[in-house]
Amino acid sequence: MPKEISEELQSLLKEVVAHFDKEDVSIRERQIRTWRRLKLFWEGFQKAWYSEVAHDWRIWDETQGDDTDQSYYDKPINVFRAYLESIIAALSVTVPPIKCYPDDADNTLDLSTAKAGDKISQLVYRHNNVSLLWLHSLFIYCTEGMVACYAYPKEDEKYGTYEEKEYDESDEQRQQVSCPECNYSLSDNPVTPDIVNQNASEMMIEPDEFMPESEGEFGNESDICPSCGTMMTPNVEQNTFVTTRLVGVTKQPKTRICMETYGGLYVKVANYARKQEDTPYLTFSYETHYANAIERYAHLHGKDSLSAKKIAAATGPRDPYEQWGRLSPQYQGEYPINTVTVRNAWLRPAAFNVLQNKSDVDRLKKKFPNGAKVVLVNDEFGEACAEALDDFWTLTYNPLSDYIHHDPLGLLLVSIQEITTDLVSLTLQTIEHGIGQTFADPGVLNFNAYRQMESVPGGIYEATPKSGKSLQESFHEIRTANLSPEVMPFAQNIQNLAQLVSGALPSLFGGQMEAGSGTASEYGMSRAQALQRLQNTWKIFTFWWKEIFGKVIPMYINEVKDDERDVQRDDEGNFINTFIRKAELEGKIGKVELEANENLPLTWSQQKDVIMQLIQTTNPEILAIIGSPKNLPIVRNAIGLTDFYVPGEDDKDKQFDEIKLLLSSEPMPTGDPMMPEMPSVDIDPVYENHSIEFEVVRGWVVSEAGRQAKIDNEAGYRNVLLHGKLHYMQMQNSMAPTGNTGAAPDAKPNPSDVQEAPITGDSNVQTAA
């Protein structure tokens, strides 16, 4: 907060931020123009022109002209967005899941922390809606190039609360009485006047008139130790102990890890940086209403530069490129009022070296040894704190570029969009002007009478041909324009070039192939080739995603204060409680990887094709995998028929319901030494499918939920085991051979077939025929 930072340090920090704000101004203006134009293309504003006077892109308004203007024929078709959305859709089928590895595979603490890290990643996924975050990141990659992820902890009561206990430590005098022989403690009481008098009276022993006074060796002993039984004089000591007492319990808001992604319009880094470590600064700027800024930084209330009158009087943005570049395209050249720019600058310790005074540099490095975060609202100082840039920000690294900044993917389609717009406009004009004009001799056709007559199909009209001439000779038709036969082939060629430069082939978005037989296998091969083109972008994002969660998971571990409980659904659709226990986070995570490989994820239709091919195979092992109770819902979804009944699914659901009942109760004693306990839920030997239900129980026992229940609910876990054992016994009984009642007895074994057992030496062993 500013009150913790002296005005002198505030001035030094503002000087450092101002130094980097002025760096590469002309280059950044050029970048903002490019990014802004792509944003306009995405929104469908194709008729934009750059004004050297206003220094921004101006959008042509159709209301500025009349029907005879060129704008009448401008009917833009947004192929720019169509191609990029196809690429984004192909790369956003799924978000790759995270897998944590322990630092030491032999350390149980590291193993438990790595497992908890997997749960943390799933929790962060749900808290941040990462599917939408992934989509937005791809959108930034297509329109701005570099993508920056900002991950930070945020406290808020809407995330829940936890109880924080407050303790007080105080010194306390205690009197300890013990046996000098065995150190047995006779008493341990706090020192108070009443206790001191009580102990003194208890230690005074009245002489017994019937017991002669002891002499010799035990003459000075006056008590018997209850532990060792020896006569002794107790040792009395007074010691000082530190006592901790619970003085209160307060509720504190929980913390979540929030993730946000931004592009070059919001984030400024050094253009000369080849990787994230090379940039000495990172500036994140955004616009908001001045009331929001004052709400967060209350000390700015009353500042003249942030007053409503001062801000509303401004006719344009303070920075004509930064603020203009971040404006919504819907403003169309106008500017909002009552907004201020909030700049968050992260400075590395090396950035302080721009100051001329060495003592000032040393002071800042001592105050912020790992770097500083400085917040400025317009030019007013908001706050400053010690934060390392790399702990909160992760930038994409493009191996196909030498620097952090690189051209966005959509830049390749700008020319395609412009040519397509011109072709559509030219074609419309040609078609309209291609309608012929007819000239007629007024002596042949009465125009006044013709205008008053209704034009009907097959109508007959009066016409008087000239003497010696036919009626056709009195009429002449001319055409003002003809569409060149080269236009349509050229337009098709442009679309082929668009697919080439962007990688969005027709098979990627379901379009029709121009050549080939059009079979399903050919479409599959074409789609595989189209996805191969996008492997580069997929690899860039997967490595970037791993680096992000390599910071997010340790950040969550540092911020967690209490056990976290989350309700999830398992593969069978049942609701289960998943716990992230603070005791499991005492180990160390070695690395963070992705569960999926580097290949692009399969779409729903591709998954369906794979499963249908597996169903058609005759391999018994594959058919057994497909017929597993856990895979039944996947098979039904792959078929695409949600109402399709799969045999055994009801048995699976019934057994999961019984597991919930078994966990909420305990086994019942039977008194039978052979089976002392029975499950609280019995089985039906006739109507239940014991093989499927036993497989469900077995799968639950070895699952994470079963292993956790073994620790938290031992009685319920044992109850489930007994229930599964009954299903198993029923399976064994059904497979046991039944006796042949009334049948002829088995034939007597042939003595020649009886041999001695090779190990036991028994002679009643019959060999197989």
**How many H/I helices?**
24
Side by side, the strands of the main sheet go: 11-12-13-14-15
Outline, from the CA principal axes? flat
Give the DSSP E fraction (strand runs of 2 or more residues): 15-25%
Overall residue-averaged pLDDT value: 79
- Helix-strand makeup class: alpha+beta
Walk me through this protein's architecture.
The protein has 769 residues and is α+β, with helices and mostly antiparallel strands. Among the domains are: 24-150 and 408-438 and 487-599, no CATH class; 649-734, no CATH class. 38% of the residues lie in helices and 19% in strands. It has 24 helices and 25 strands. The protein has a 5-stranded antiparallel β-sheet with strand order 11-12-13-14-15. The chain has a 3-stranded antiparallel β-sheet with strand order 10-4-16. A 3-stranded antiparallel β-sheet has the order 6-5-9, with no helix packed on it. Strand 1 (48-51) and strand 2 form a beta hairpin. Helix 22 (690-702) packs antiparallel against helix 24. It is flat and about 160 Å long. Mean pLDDT is 79; it is low at 199-221, 313-317, 741-747 and 751-769.
